[in-house]
Amino acid sequence: MRCTVGVQHTCGVTDSAVPDSPLPLPRYVRAAVIGPASDFSEAVINAFSTADRRVHHLVPLELSSMSTPLSRSLDVALLTVDPSSLESVLSGHAELFSGLVVVVCTSAVSHDKDGFFMERVPEGGVANLVARLLPNARTVGALQQFNAEHVILASLGTLETDVPVVADDIEAADLVEGLIDEIRGFNSVYAGPLRSSAAIEGIAAVINEAARERGSPVGFRLSRTGIKILDR
């Protein structure tokens, strides 16, 4: 964790997210991406893989044949599933994700001829949707503003940006921030509890519109007064 933005970030967890056991240090994390075979999934796998950590890839169809909780073999699952498919992918699988840190990496950003905008999510944000579907998981929202190109460029250090992290479970947020800060161009920022997720996810529309205007991906800095777009 590098900093917080206008919110109190203290040690421990909320009453609704008490962990069963302490989480490992980032370097010892067992991680997997759960999502389709896509450029974004591949970029996230490569970004979080290190000499000491192999990030595995599970496609959503594999969940239907599993019965053992994923927390037996994983500490962190990075969800790259499109928000429109999350309900069908996760429904009925809550026990598989019990006790697992689940990082929601997608948002409901969309676009039309007039530009980028956020699709409505009944729960308020995609991270809130996942928290409802997986009530016993330790849900964190992160990387939701970015696409594959952002992640690749940040991994190379040719794009710098803040990465907002939202979570009610502060220990899980700390772990995810530690993983994010291993990536050269990324700077994690705790941006509040899950109830902040809709506003934070909405940054995706802002930076995608800025990238469209400039013709290349952009980063941003987050502060109490708003966001500042960073040109490469």
Would you state the CATH class? Answer: Alpha Beta
Following the backbone from N to C, one meets helices and strands in this order, namely: EEHEEHEEEHEHEHEHHEE
The overall number of domains is 1
Shape: globular
> What is the CATH fold-level name?
Rossmann fold
The chain-level mean pLDDT equals 92
Spans where pLDDT lies below 50 across 5 or more residues: 10-19
Radius of gyration: 16 Å
User: Would you identify the CATH architecture?
Assistant: 3-Layer(aba) Sandwich
**Strand line-up in the sheet with most strands:** 1-10-9-8-5-4-2-3
Which range does the strand content fall in? 15-25%
Helical proportion, percent range: 25-40%
Largest sheet: 8 strands, mixed
Written description of the protein model:
With 232 residues, the chain is α/β, with parallel strands linked by helices. It has one domain (3-8, 20-230): NAD(P)-binding Rossmann-like Domain (Rossmann fold, 3-Layer(aba) Sandwich). 27% of the residues lie in helices and 23% in strands. The protein is built from 7 helices and 12 strands. The chain has helices at 39-48, 83-90, 126-133, 148-156, 170-180, 197-201, 203-214, and strands at residues 3-4, 31-34, 56-58, 76-79, 101-104, 109-112, 115-118, 138-141, 161-167, 186-192, 219-223, 226-230. The strands form 3 sheets. An 8-stranded mixed sheet has the order 1-10-9-8-5-4-2-3. The protein has a two-stranded antiparallel sheet with strand order 6-7. Strands 11-12 form a two-stranded antiparallel ribbon. α2 links the parallel β4 (76-79) and β5 (101-104). The longest helix is centred in the last third of the chain and has 12 residues, at 203-214. The radius of gyration is 16 Å and the shape is globular. It starts with a strand and ends with a strand. The model is unreliable at 10-19 (pLDDT under 50).
